[in-house]
Amino acid sequence: MQSITRKTLLYRGGFKSTDYCLNHVEGCSHGCKYPCYAFLIKQRHGAVKDYADWIKPKLVSNALDLLDSEMNRLGNRLGRVYMSFATDIFMYGNAEVRELTLRIMAKLNSRGVPCTTLTKGLYPKEVAEKQGAGRENHYGITLVSLDEDFRKKYEPGAAPLAERLAALKYLHDKGCKTWVSLEPYPPEFMVKQDITKLLDAVSFVDEIAVGKLNYNNELYRHKGINEFYKHVYFSIWRYCDKNKISYAIPIVPEKKPAEEPVAKAAPQQLAFNLPEPVGCGV
Prior knowledge:
Layout: E1 3-4, E2 11-12, E3 20-21, E4 25-26, H1 37-44, H2 51-54, E5 58-60, H3 63-74, E6 81-83, H4 95-110, E7 115-119, E8 138-142, H5 148-154, H6 161-173, E9 177-185, H7 195-201, E10 207-212, H8 225-243, E11 246-248, E12 251-253, E13 263-265
Parallel strand pairs: 1-5, 3-6, 6-7, 7-8, 8-9, 9-10, 10-11
Antiparallel strand pairs: 2-3, 4-5, 12-13
Helix pairs in contact: 3-4
């Protein structure tokens, strides 16, 4: 596996003064085709040449040294760390990425710093055994559909959906805090599905976050997209409220969409202090 070096690792995410992010891999073999926001940004800034370059990830070879140095500098100013906005920390089938991720999490946890993680890969069972600050880690998966044909088309390199969900359920059953991201939630021109079935499949989690599809040229060629997402947000809000699940929703309609809702800001119901969605679900 190829590698690169960086000058810094931790950065402020811009959402909470005590939250930092890190990305210890350049690229992602999952190759999501929604399209992936992280890929678009990296290509725009010249970090990767094209899609073929993006799906050949490169490790940040000096990530552990940078982390030691930056943890010492930040001290107790370093709050919860989010992993990661611009790659996948448990890239499916990639042992080198997994091992570096586990070593980074161990370093953070050993200094009393918990992590919030998100993956379309599989969580190693060993993360359920973490102690100390590791017990405050929050483990999430992106799961926007239960349709495996959809996964093969739009998330071609990611873990199969049933395996992804089972790995998260294992952590839940071991007492870990778990969450799911339904972002980018696909409109019907990508896949027709019953959102209640999807919500039932993830009903064991502590929090559900959702966001709309972005950066897709087909999106506004289809009528009713805004109403579609109002319905999605309302359905998730109603489900979470009924089942006592925390949620992160961009807007919550005051009434059902059929009753001409007026959108309002979603209430602050974030149990995990999650960062704001960025549209890439990585």
